[in-house]
Design goal:
Keywords: Acetylation, Membrane, Mitochondrion, Mitochondrion inner membrane, Transit peptide, Transmembrane, Transmembrane helix. This protein has 86 residues and is mainly α. 42% of the residues lie in helices and 0% in strands. The chain has helices at 34-40, 53-81. The longest helix is centred in the C-terminal third of the chain and has 29 residues, at 53-81.
Length: 86
Amino acid sequence: MRFSRWRGGASPAPSGGRLRTKSPRNRRCSSSGSSNEDTSEDNGMPVHLKGGSADALLYRTTMALTVLGVGYVLFELVKAAFPQKK
């Protein structure tokens, strides 16, 4: 006997077993390919900088938040490991 998590034993998917979406199944990529060419050419630049100044700013912001987050986690771990005596 198979048990279902859904009430009434009915599955949440519509009949046919597939979820229906509004996007077409046969979506094709852009035929121009120009955006892919600048990121795939080998010119010695890292991929995160090939998109221009907006990508560089996003990368630097992400790295800064990551470093600050790791520092804060380490600070909280040390604070929890050595509680203050009252």
